[in-house]
Amino acid sequence: MKTVLITGCSSGYGLETARHFHAQGWNVIATMRTPREDLLPRSPRMSVLALDVTKPESIAAAIEASGPIDVLVNNAGIGLFGAFEATPMATIREVFETNTFAVMAMTQAALPQFRARRAGVVVNVTSSATLAPMPLVAVYTASKQAIEGFTASLAHELAAFGVSVKLVEPGYAPTTRFTANGGERMAGLIPEAYAPFAQRVFASFAQLPAVTTEADVAETVWLAANDSSGRLRYAAGADAVALAQVQG
To answer: Which class for 198: exposed (0-12), middle (13-18), buried (19 or more C-beta within 10 A)?
Structure first.
């Protein structure tokens, strides 16, 4: 029986991914900053651990408590929507701390056991914003694009040790708490001069013919974790798949 450790399981993609792996018979270690066992099935195959991916001591404690794992899913992330001109550098650093540096730190913490066993999979969840340029998400896209390059390079580096590294690229998912979770962070990031443009962008989101669901992402993460073909990228959700096809 295999074991997966998933970050950011309190809502959205992470929560659904934890449920999906558990339904497939895996041992699941669902991590979140404030553990809530009521969100997930009560089962001897389900463990909920506290983890703040931005704190080295929290990462070390979670990895030690987890024991041997077969798959690491770096899902935890924060959103940001706003004009780059109005975004404080402190906010930019906060986004990179979680979306970029924390992914690297979690991966680095898991690699010794994977390399020693010459087996293991790292799945990094990014965004379809990396597939095609989008307005008003320059900082968010940059934080995710960094992980795209990191993952592609790392996949080459670790192949010699039997370790796989994958990218899952979700599309636009209006049913997640992406906007709500970033409300305070995004306050004031649409100055008056940008308001008409921002309204047009928001309106275009409402007219998308297809969007991504949490289940789309959970199923795609499952596919990536179990695919031994050497494939690197997996678009998740109808809109992301369409973008990926356009990009070729």
So the answer is: middle
